[in-house]
Design brief:
- The relative contact order is 0.14.
- 24% of the residues lie in helices and 15% in strands.
- The protein has 2 domains: 148 residues, Ureohydrolase domain (Arginase, Chain A, 3-Layer(aba) Sandwich); 109 residues, Ureohydrolase domain (Arginase, Chain A), CATH 3.40.800.10.
- Helix 3 runs parallel beside helix 4.
- With 259 residues, it is α/β, with parallel strands linked by helices.
């Protein structure tokens, strides 16, 4: 059917409802949601953090928010499979843009992320964040815990991210261990899915290894997460390297197999 409008990211008059941009054209935002810094009446704010200075191998995750927005353009108006549901019929979702970071002052990065995330959460919006390397989860966790208290961590990842840490490192491989030591996460209720490496410690977090995931259905994985978290408030984080690099070859730290 012919498109009825274009550039919904800028021209939308309300926060709910589907866009009708041509899939191949129009201003790009996350799933064509309206770009705005206003949080009034917002249910969900989608926010990009273009940062990858904490990686130990290949960089490039700073381009993640742009790439996700580009890929999401095709999912802007039809009821989403397999739920047959218009996500935006009643849910007010905005694209809040990106976090402004100083590329020459990385020590300021975690505080900048935490402060802006706290502002969004303080307005009552649910925060969906697009990374960025996995270090950005550290300041995001701090902001969420300040509002909700300690959280169960549900982490889809090839790595445990519990490597040695001095409490100040800007490192994508140690934030989980730091969060466990500082009491930000409820380790007894936390779970990691798709792990395909061995770190020095597991911090008491349950792990579902990659070879185990291969033999499970999506429903079985979901049921296991719900059972293990036991109704606790949850922070969900998904590292792209949880996917088999055959399907996501651009990841900075590829490990074969898993999802």
């Amino acid at each position: 059917m012919p498109s009825k409008s274009i550039d919904h990211a800028f021209t939308a008059s309300r926060l709910t409802g589907a866009a009708t941009d041509p899939t191949h054209a129009g201003a790009l935002s996350f799933m064509r949601r309206k770009y705005t810094k206003s949080l009034e009446g917002v249910d969900v704010a989608v926010w990009g953090i273009p940062f990858d200075a904490a990686v130990s191998n290949r960089p490039g995750a700073r381009f993640g928010p742009q790439a996700i927005r580009r890929a999401s353009a095709i999912f802007d108006n039809d009821p989403q499979y397999p739920f047959h549901r218009d996500l935006f019929e009643n849910l007010a979702v905005i694209d809040y843009g990106d976090c402004l970071l100083d590329y020459g002052n990385h020590q300021r990065t975690p505080a900048t992320i935490e402060e802006e995330a706290s502002k969004i959460l303080g307005a009552g919006a649910f925060l969906l964040t697009l990374g960025g390397d996995h270090y950005v989860t550290w300041p995001l966790l701090k902001a969420h815990v300040a509002k909700h208290g300690p959280l169960a961590l549900v982490q889809f990842d090839a790595h445990q991210d519990t490597w040695d840490d001095d409490g100040e490192r800007i490192d994508h491989g140690s934030f989980v261990g730091r969060a466990a030591r500082e009491g930000l996460i409820n380790t007894a209720k936390s779970i990691q899915i798709g792990i395909r490496t061995h770190a020095p410690e597991d911090c008491g977090i349950r792990m579902i290894y990659g070879h185990e995931v291969e033999d499970m259905t999506a429903q079985e994985i979901a049921d296991l997460i719900v059972e293990h978290t036991g109704g606790a408030p949850v922070y969900l984080t998904f590292d792209i390297d949880c996917l088999d690099p055959a399907f996501a070859p651009g990841t900075g730290t590829p490990n074969s197999k898993s999802l």
